[in-house]
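>> received
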Amino acid sequence: MSLVKRISNIFKAKANDIVEKMEDPEDTLNYSLVEMRENLSKIKKSMLDVATLKKKLENELSDINIKISEYEKNAELALESGREDLAKASIQNKNDLIEKKTNLESQIKSIEEQLKNIEKSKEQMEDNLIKLQSKKEELITMKKVSDAQVMIKETLTGIANDTTDLGERIRNAEEKIKEKYAKSQAIDYMVDAGMLDNILDDEDKVEKELKEIEKQKRAEEEFEELKKRVAAKNQAIKE
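>> returned
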């Protein structure tokens, strides 16, 4: 396998590993569970808000019913007292409240429908959450088994792909061993034929000649030094 191909395979493996980690099904399941719990919490809060508003309107409706009864009594009392104007005013106020009461009852009915829909959504989400929670371990187990199977298959595939490269490496090693063996045989042949001895003898002769030249040079230098000393001595005697 060439170096470039190996490096390419390494980068591919790293990239695949990064992608696998980014797309980890277990993390996806956990995130889905967290998201569903958050949405369920939001739905419950919405139910609480809507129920609170319904209760507020019901209290307001109760107050209006009380006031309607009071206006009816006031109108009757005013009429008995000869105050038709007050009786008419009380009746008008009562009718205004009746109209408001009708609107409130309509709003409360609409809110009750909303609460039913929200409750239905809540129950459905709770059911999905329970199902996903119970399914999570099963899915994770399936994922682990699948990963193991993929790893085994990839390993077997890698071995098959490397078989050719292994054969090539064996052939290269065999050629190098044969080359060294041939070289060893050639050296043995040269030793038996005395060819290496001649080479060594030639090397000894060269070394001897170099040593002789060096010896002669030292002798000449010593001779010249001696001549200088004698000349200096004779010169001193003459003086």
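>> Helices lie at 3-22, 25-80, 84-192, 195-238.
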